[in-house]
Amino acid sequence: MARLEQVITTMVEVFLEYADNQGKKQMLCKDELQALLQTEIESPELKSKINPDDIDEAMRTLDKNKDEEVNFREFCRCVTILATSYYRKKHGKGGKGKGKDDAAED
């Protein structure tokens, strides 16, 4: 399987695995989100972005429809935030205010 395809299928599988533990199926409650983030992220670079004491804040940030659960779309936003953070750590802040050649890399 190609790498990007693997990333996509893994995101879906991980979400569904944790979303089916408590509450509504295909939705993450706060405890499920916390378990997912604590278990599925091992890298110190990314783990440092996730403070277990701040799961409530993460829920408020991700839960745009205010139903106290995270759906798959909201989960994808979480993964995007973590991926962007990792990218910036590896390649510098970059992007905004630079020439078009530099901005194209973001």
Summary of the model, kept short:
This protein has 106 residues and is mainly α. It contains six helices and no strands.
CATH topology assignment: Recoverin, domain 1
Mass-distribution shape: globular
Order of helices and strands: HHHHHH
- Detail the poorly predicted runs: 97-106
- How large, in whole angstroms, is the Cα Rg? 15 Å
- Portion of residues in beta strands equals under 5%
The helix tally amounts to 6
Tell me the span between the first and last alpha carbons.
Answer: 25 Å
Give the helix level as a range of percent: 55-70%
CATH class: Mainly Alpha
Question: Averaged pLDDT, please?
Answer: 79
CATH homology-level superfamily = EF-hand
Number of strands: 0
CATH architecture: Orthogonal Bundle
- List the domain count as a whole number: 1
